[in-house]
Amino acid sequence: MLEVKNVNKTFGKKNVLKDVNLKVEKMSIHGLIGYNGAGKTTLLKIIAGVYAKDSGEINFCGEPLWDNEKMKQKIFYVPDDIYFRTATTMKKMAKFYEGYYPNFDMNTFNKLSEIFGLNVNAKVNGFSKGMQRQAELILGLSAKPDLLLLDESFDGLDPAKRHLTKDILLEYMAERNASVIISSHNLRELTDMCDHLALMNGNKISLDVSVQEISEQRFKVRLAFKEDVSDDELTLAGLTNIERDGKIITAKINSNAEETIKSIELLQPVLFEKIPLTLEEIFLEEMEDKSYDLKEIFS
Amino acid sequence: MTSKKSSPDVFRFTFKDTVKGNIPISLIVFIPAVFKVFFEFFEGVLLNDPPVKWFSGAYVYEVADIHEGYFAVMILWSCLFALKTFGFLSKKKDCNVYLSLGISRNKLFYSKYLGGAVGILGTIGAYYALDLLFHWLENGLMTEGFIVWAFYFISTLVTCLAAYTVAVYAFVNAGNIVEGIVFTFFFGIFWPAFNVTLNQAMSVLVYGNAYGTRLYAASKFFSSDVWYLDIFGSYTEQLKFYTRDLTKVNVYYNGFTTPDWSGVIFAVFAIIVITYISGRMFRKRTSEICGFVFRSKNLYKTFFMLLGICMGLSLMAAFPMYRIAAAATSVLIALIFVFVSWLICDRRVPVKATVALAVLSVVFVGGCLVGYGDDVPEKSKVKAVDIATDFSYLQDADPCQYSRLSSFGSVSPSYLGKTSVNVSRRYNRDNFYYVTLTTDKDIDWVLDLHSNLINDGYRWYPDENTARGGITISYLMDDGSVIVRNYDYMSIETYKKLLGFDKTEKGSALLNYALTSDDSIKLINKNVGPVNSVEGSNHYYFGFFGYSEYVENVASIMMNDPVSHYYGFGEASTVAVLADKDLSYVGMIEKAEKSLWVNEFFNAMFTDIKNQTVEQKHFHSAEDEIGAVLVPLNATSEIVPYSIILEDYEKLEKSDAFYGNFHAYYEKRMDEYYQEEDEYYDDYEYEEYSDVEYYPTVEADPDYEKDPERIVGNIVKKGNSGEFFYTYVITKDMTDTIEYLKKIGLYDELMKAEEQPVSVNIDKAEVVLEPFYTPDDKIQTMAINPNFSTYDYEAYSEYMVDIFTSAPITDSAVIAEVYSKSQMYSGKVYGGYIAEFFYADGKQVSRFVPASAMTDELLAKMNVAD
Hints:
The complex is a heterodimer.
Chain A: E1 2-11, E2 14-24, E3 29-34, H1 40-48, E4 55-60, E5 63-64, H2 69-72, E6 75-78, H3 90-98, H4 106-116, H5 129-142, E7 147-151, H6 159-176, E8 179-184, H7 187-191, E9 196-201, E10 204-210, H8 211-217, E11 219-225, H9 231-237, E12 239-245, E13 248-253, H10 257-266, E14 269-276, H11 279-287, H12 294-298
Parallel strand pairs in A: 3-8, 3-9, 6-7, 7-8
Antiparallel strand pairs in A: 1-2, 1-4, 4-5, 9-10, 11-13, 11-14, 12-13
Chain B: H1 10-21, H2 23-45, H3 56-67, H4 70-86, H5 92-100, H6 105-139, H7 143-173, H8 177-207, H9 214-222, H10 262-284, H11 292-295, H12 297-318, H13 323-344, H14 351-366, E1 382-390, E2 432-437, H15 440-456, E3 466-477, E4 482-491, H16 492-499, H17 505-516, H18 518-528, H19 539-542, H20 549-560, H21 562-566, E5 575-579, E6 585-590, H22 600-611, H23 614-618, E7 625-633, H24 642-654, H25 656-668, H26 673-676, H27 678-683, E8 686-688, E9 694-696, H28 702-706, E10 724-731, H29 735-743, H30 747-750, E11 757-765, H31 775-784, H32 790-800, H33 812-821, E12 832-839, E13 844-850, H34 856-861
Antiparallel strand pairs in B: 1-2, 1-3, 3-4, 5-6, 5-7, 7-10, 8-9, 11-12, 12-13
Helix pairs in contact in B: 1-6, 2-4, 2-6, 3-7, 4-6, 4-7, 6-7, 6-10, 7-8, 7-10, 8-9, 8-12, 9-10, 12-13, 12-14, 13-14, 15-16, 17-18, 18-20, 22-29
C-alpha cells in the first residue's frame, strides 16, 4: 500500500532522514517508534506532503505520492501540533475537511463525537488538550482515509479514552481495510495494538518487522537448574543480561537462538521457558548502543 | 477500501472558503467606502447641492483620498489580504494541515490566491459599482464619464492586486511573519530604486535612450508614485492647458480623466508573472516553516545585496542632488549588508556577491548613469526640445527667499504621447511648466541655458549663489533618439536666464496665449469682472477681490499656464500682470528674484496707496484710472501691512465721500426689500449714526488689532489654499507707480487706445458687497465649480436676484456716460451699482458705479425706475 524507498531529508546541515525504507501493507497498524528527534514526525510529514523529500521515492497504492491530489485524499494526517481554525467548532471543521476528503462521512463524525462525548457545536478553543486530541482523531477517522497518519496522537488522552481509541482504530482498520501509522515514543501504548513496528534509530529505520515475527525471534528465557550454574557457563551458552531471583534465572539470548537453546538444554535445566520481549525491551535493545555510566557523572 | 463519493472539487471549495474567510477584511474597506459613496450622494442630492459634472466627483475624491493616504491604506489593506490568505505558511500548525490536505499544491495556491484576489475585486468593485450607480442617478450617464469610472476602478484594482501579489510572493518565500514583513518592505523600498534603474539607467543601457521606452512605461508602475493614480498617467481636462498644442483651455475644476493604460497593462503583466513565480515557489516549498530567505545562503546573500543596492538607489532617487554622496552611501550600505551576511553565513565572505555588488554599484550609482550629463548636443542634430521645470524644491535655504513658498509636487514629463502631470498632486500643480521648443531661436536659447547649467557644475547644497529647482531638458534628435538631462540646482545667473523664457518665441506666444486668447479673456472677464481698486488684503475688510470662486478659475488659468507656472506665478512670487482698465493684458512686471515683496515696484505702489485719499481710492472715476496690477499669491504671501488697512478705514469712515455715497444709496434704492426686512440689517453690523441714518462700522479682527504692523495675507479659503489674485487699481494720482512703469517701459503700453463697449446694463449692488456677483455669474460659478457653497448661493440669491433690474442699453452716449462714472471694482461697494459692459468681441467687464455718481437722469436712461 505505502512504500517508502531510500528517502532522505536534510534540514540545513542536519541529515534527519537517511535512506529510510518503510513498507506498510493494507489493514495494518504500523508503530513508528524512536527517540525524540529520531525523525518520526519528519517521515510522517513527508508522507503527508507537508515536507518535500530531498530524494527517494514514496508510492501509495502504486502511484507516486508527492502532490498527488487523488492519493492525498486517501491519507489523513493527524499532527502532533493540534490545529483548529480560529473560533471554530468541530462541526465547522468537519465541513472544512469534507471539502477535501471524498469519503468524509458526517454520520461517522456524529457517531464518534457522541461516543467520545464531544459537543460538535461547541467552540474547540474551549476544549481541553485531551478533548482537542479526541476531536482531531474523530475528524481523521470521519474522513475515512485508507491511510491514517497519527503523530503522537495518544498524548493527553486519559486511560479510558486511550483504550476506546485503540478499539476504534482496530475496528476501523478491520472495517475499512485501512492502515494506520502511529508514531510514538510511548511503547506501552503500541504494544497491544500494532501488528508492525518500525524502529527509527538515528536517522534511519533500524528495524521494520511484524510483531508476530519479532515475538518469535526475540524472546527471553526463564531457567532453573538443580545444581548451580555459573554466569560464565550461561554466557558461554549464549545468554546475556543474566538476572537471578533465587533459583530462577532470567536472561536474553545473545545471538543464535537455536544453538543457544541447544547449549542450555545440555545444562539440563529443570525450568526452561521462552518469554516474548516487550516492545520496550526490543526498543531498548535496539538503542542500547548508547550506555552511560551515571556514576561517573556525579563522581 | 472503496470511495463512497466522487472526488470533491477542491479548487472550488478552497476558493469559496478563502473568499468567505476574507470577508472581514473586505469589510474594513467596504463599509467606510460605501458610507462615503452614500454620504456624497445624499449630500449632493438631498441637501440640494448643485449638481457636479458626471464623475467629476470621482476625480475629486480620488485626489482627496490620495492626499489622505488613501492609496497607502489600500495597499496595506491588500497586504492584509495576503497575510490572511497565505498567513498559514507562517504558522507551523496551520501548515501541517493545509499542506497535507487532499489538494495539490498548485490548486491550493491558485485557489487561495484567486480567493484573495476576488475578495479585493469584490470589495473595490462593489464600492465602485455603487459609486457608478449614484453618479448615474445624480448626473446621468455619459460615455466619457464611464471611461473615467472604468479607469479609476481598474487602476485602483490593479494597484491593490499588485500589492497583494507582491505580499503573497513575500509570504510564499518567507518562513515566518517577520520574514514576510521584511520581504514586503524590501519590495517597498525596491520600487523607487527600481524606478530609477528602469526609468533611466537601464533604458539608457538597453535602448540608448532614457524615457520613451517600454521600460519607462514599466517603471511608472514601480515608481514611488505607485501610491498615486498618476502612475497610470491620468490627467484631467483641466490640465490640457499644459498640452503642447494648447488646443483647449478648460477650467473645469474636476475634469475628466484621459486614461493612459500602459501602466495598467504593465502592472497586469507583472502580476501574472509574479503570481506564476509565486505558484512555482509554493509548489517547491520544502517544508512548512522553511525560513526560506534566511536558510538559503544564496538567496540570503542576494537578498541583502539587492537590499543594499536598492537602498542606495532609493537614496539617490530621493536626494538626486547628492548623487555622489548617495553613490558612496549606497555602496557603504551594501557593504554593511554584505558584512552582516558574512557574520550570519558561517563567516564566509560572499565573494561573488560582493563583486557583483561592487559592479552594480559602479554601474548604477557610481557611473552616474542617471545623472549629470556634461554634453550639450550639437544644434544641427536637435529637432526639438522639451523643457519641464519643477520648482517644488524651493525651500527656506534658498537665497531666492522662496521660504514662503510651499514645497510641492513634482513633474514627470512623459514621452508616451501624453503629458504626464502629477494629478494626484493637483493642488500642488503650481510648479508645473512643460513646453516644447522647436524654432532655431528657441533651441539656441535652450542650448545656451544648458551650457550655463553645465558650467554651474555640481551644487550640493544651495548657497547664496544657488537656486534650487528641477529642470528637465529633453532633446528630440533628428535620428529620433531622445537625450534627457535633469538638473536640480543652478546658479542664480542660470536661474535668471531661465526666467527669460518669455523672451523666447514659444515663451512669448504662450504668454500671449495664456493671457490674451479668447478663452482666457472670456474667462477672465466673464468670471472675474473688473479688478478691485483696493490694496487688497483680508476680504472681510476690503472686499478682497480674490475671494471669489471666479477668481479661482482665473487663477487656475494664470497659474496653470506654462508661462505663469514657469515663473512660479502661483506662488505669488516673481511676477505681476499689468492690465489696462479693460483688463487687457499689457505686460509682466518681474520682481527681483531675491525678494518677494520688498522691491521697487511694490514699494512704489504701496507708498501711493497709502497716500491716496478716500476719493482717489474708493470713489474715483473712470478717467482717473490707468490700469490694474494682478498679483497672484498664495496663503503665505505677504500682502499689505495691516497698518495701511486700518488707516484706510479710518479715513474712509470719516470721509464725506463715503457718507455721501451711502446716503445716496439709501435715497436711491429702488426696492423695498431693505425697508421691509429688518433682519437684513442684522446681517451686517451697523451702528446708529444719527436719528435716521445708518452707517457701516469698520470691524477689525481682534488678532490683527493686537499687532497692527502684522503682515496681512493669510487667506483662509475653502479647499485648497493659495490660488488667489490680489489686484490693485492704478490711478493717475499714483505717481511713484507710474514713474516705475515708465522706467520699465510699460507705461506707454498701458496708455494705448482702449476698446469701446457696445452695451451696458446695471445691477444694483449691496451696501457692503464683497466681490460682486450678478446672479448670472453665480450660476456660472456653480456650473464650473461643484464646490460652490449652497449656502452662499442661497444667501446671495435672497438679496440679489430680486434687485436685478436693468436691461442692456446699446446707446453709445449712455454707455460712455455710465462708463465715465464707473470705476474698477472697489472691494466693498458701499452702495451703488454694478455696470456690466460688453464689448464687440464678447468680452465683458464689470465696473462699480457709486450711488452718489448715479444721477436720477442716468438711471432713467438705463430704464431703471426708482
